[in-house]
Amino acid sequence: MNPKLVFWVPAALRMSFVLFGAGLAWFFWGAAVGLTIGLLCMAALVVVQLHYLYQLSAWLDNPDSAKLPDGWGAWTDIFSRLYRLKRGDDRNRTELTEWLARFRQAMSLLPDGVVIMDDVLFLEWCNPAAERHLGLNLERDKGMRVTNLIRNPAFIDYVILGRYEQPLTLALRERKLIAHIIPFETRRQILVTHDATESERIEMMRRDFIANASHELRTPLTVINGFLEIASAQPNLDPDTRAAHLKLMTEQGHRMQNLVEDMLSLTRLESEDFPLRVEPIEMNVLLNQILQEAKALSAGRHDISLKSDGPDIHGSPEELRSAFSNLVSNAVRYTPEGGSIELSWTQTKSGPQFAVRDTGIGIRPEHISRLTERFYRVDKSRSRETQGTGLGLAIVKHVLLRHHATLAIDSKPGQGTVFTVKFPDGALP
Ligand code: ADP
Question: What residues are in contact with ligand 1 under a 6 Å CB criterion?
């Protein structure tokens, strides 16, 4: 119904009723009685209005705890409309609070940092990632100027110059950060930070790998090209020199081939397109083949033995053969003539283990943690002399990672080295 009618019709009816009663009294008992009754009724109406006004004022003082009265006359409608408004407001507030909680949770899970500042760079809010990236603490730093909190000259210049179209790369707290300020609303700005440390590290590894691989390939190529130039410039070289050159060129060709094969193996091991193909492995058969290969490589220069009483396992026979062969061929290549090499496959309390023990040149402790890096060599010339590519232990590391196994290296310079591959107990992947 029309609200005006809801208000005025009952009020007019009540007033007419009072006037009509007072008129009747005047008619029957005279003017004094009629006026008195009329005034008393009006006073009663005023008292009722004041009572409900008071109730409304009390409710407005504390709308959450005080209860709205039912009311009388037009007050019934006013109170019920107020009640409906309040219910809607409560619902909106609950929704807003829930939404804010969800927003905060989403922001706290973001890997990127978000800082909200006012137009003069006073910190208003930031998420946990921003606290980590920039060393902020929202509770402690709220209301402080961001340039006083992030005391980095590049950042301060960025803010002063206000060239916000481009992000800024920052080295901060041993991290590589990409920071970007985006103005929003009229008097606020948002600072977004992205931690690029890991991607930068991967990019650096990629660059190093390409530089190392190019360098490794360039050396044999230079040698081969050199001999080819000699051969074309001096067609009548004596047969002995020619044979010596051909031998050296063949060696360099093999070196390049080994390098390319090792690089391809590493790429395959790292690629998700080549998942591990697991099958049962007869360890005795595999280890005996590796023993024969080691003997062939050593050509009788070492005493090589195998002790195998460990269990058969599941894994990729090709990958494990490649990892174990790398360890064994290293032992042969880094053990001087007359030394001994022991291969063992045993079951221990923590799981099966493959160990290669040699009495070779050994490795100084400062090199041990870096040995599985690509192209890392203790002695570059010795590695090349023995046809090493510098990728063998990197391949071992990747194969073992795929088999949930670990590599332990124990070495004494001048006395020898033990490489131990430890497999987890129970079923392999
Ligand atoms: P490389 O092809 O040069 O042998 P690896 O990755 O197989 O490359 O080995 C890395 C380095 O670790 C080698 O250059 C060598 O210095 C050292 N190394 C590996 N195995 C042995 C070992 N059994 N004894 C001494 N040094 C070793």
Answer: 326, 330-331, 334, 358, 360-361, 363, 371, 376-379, 383, 388-394, 417
Distances (CA, A) of 38 to 17, 32, 45, 209, 356: 10, 10, 11, 105, 117
Q: Whose CA is nearest to atom 20 of ligand 1?
A: 330
Residue 178, token pair as written in the block: 């990409």
Cα(24)–Cα(33) distance, rounded to whole angstroms? 10
Q: Kindly report, residue by residue over 272-322, the tens digit of the pLDDT.
A: 788 888 999 999 999 999 999 999 999 999 999 999 999 999 999 999 999
- Tell me the best of 260, 371, 395 to mutate to test the pocket of ligand 1, counting ligand atoms within 8 Å of each CB and taking the most: 371
Model-level pTM greater than 0.70? no
Question: What is the rounded CA–CA span in Å between residue 177 and residue 192?
Answer: 10
Write the residue with the smallest CA distance to atom 7 of ligand 1. 392
Ligand 1 geometric centre to CA of 115 (Å): 49
- Ligand 1 pocket check: which of 216, 255, 263, 330 to mutate, most ligand atoms within 8 Å of Cβ? 330
> Beta-carbon neighbour count of residue 176 at 10 Å?
16
Q: Domains for the chain: give ranges and CATH numbers.
A: 3-100 (no CATH), 110-195 (3.30.450.20), 199-270 (1.10.287.130), 279-427 (3.30.565.10)
Give me the residue label for tokens 């006395």: 415
Tokens of 321: 């053969």
Q: Which of 259, 342, 393 has the most ligand 1 atoms within 8 A of CB, as the residue to mutate?
A: 393
Backbone angles phi, psi at 221, to 5 degrees: -65, -40
Q: Please, is 45 exposed, middle or buried when counting C-beta atoms within 10 Å of its C-beta (0-12, 13-18, 19+)?
A: middle
pLDDT of residue 10: 77
Per-residue model confidence as pLDDT tens digits over 126-165: 999 999 999 999 999 999 999 999 999 999 999 888 888 8
